[in-house]
Specification:
128 residues; alpha+beta; 5-stranded mixed beta sheet; two-stranded antiparallel ribbon; 21% strand; globular
Length: 128
Amino acid sequence: MAIVKNRRIFLRWFKYEEFNSPDDPLSYKKMEEEVLKRLDFARELANTPFKITSGYRTKKYNSTLKNSVPNSSHCKGLAVDIYCDSNRNRWKIIDSLIKARFTRIGIAKNFIHCDIDEDKANGVIWLY
């Protein structure tokens, strides 16, 4: 177990370090606990590995990314991107994210974004 937001939660399918911003080795602590709980549940439902390609992002790191936006949900600890390598896995991942109550899903060629940012439109799926 690791401390996140000063609480202890157990993640069955992930290591906390997977959610770190590349420029901050302890930034997983800035992830919202609810996102991690829902993601762990989604992984259980999907019965397929989830490779996290982006979790928490510092504003500095976020600003270096080509298509990122300044108000990225990643910078609030409310979003993750999951690598996706096939249409079958894309279905499994998206289906499980919806069942785990993620309210915002973005679909790209090789990753799926999910977040629970209530400051943005909810009940949406978009393409990159």
